[in-house]
Amino acid sequence: MESKSKFKIVLFAPEIPGNTGSIGRTCVALGIELILIKPYGFEIDEKAVRRAGLDYWKHVQLKEFDSWDDFIKGENPERNKLIFLENTGEELYYNAPYTTDCYLIFGRETTGFPAELELEYQSNFYRLPMYSEHIRSLNLSNVATTVAYECLRHLL
Description:
By secondary structure, this protein is of the alpha/beta class. Helix 1 (17-30) packs parallel to helix 2 and helix 1 packs parallel to helix 5. The chain has helices at 17-30, 47-53, 68-75, 115-120, 140-155, and strands at 8-12, 33-37, 61-65, 82-85, 91-92, 103-106, 125-127.
């Protein structure tokens, strides 16, 4: 079965290879592209990436960029197609303007996005609800999967 969607998942400077591998596995399941923006906190061919992606990693539609600027130049996305997910977003993720050609963008696990990106794209930031004061953030691969399936739900 082929995906009807062309939305993409973008990881900005991912640090944890297991998260990247798991997100790659979700991308294979949905037939969507995974875009990675450097620098990484690991080597892309690291065993932990492959372990989390299992034998699916070889099927990941992967594109890499050296920087945010290279990503913008290479993809040339419309501003309103960039959907950032971060716990600082004012709007909830199910209110995001999902389209077949949007980019679901996730920040670095420990530090999120650089302040200048948050300022420049403030109105494009969304979050998942968290109701406990004991939790600072959710696992990146869980969030990426949740948001990807919400995007798909909006598109069906």
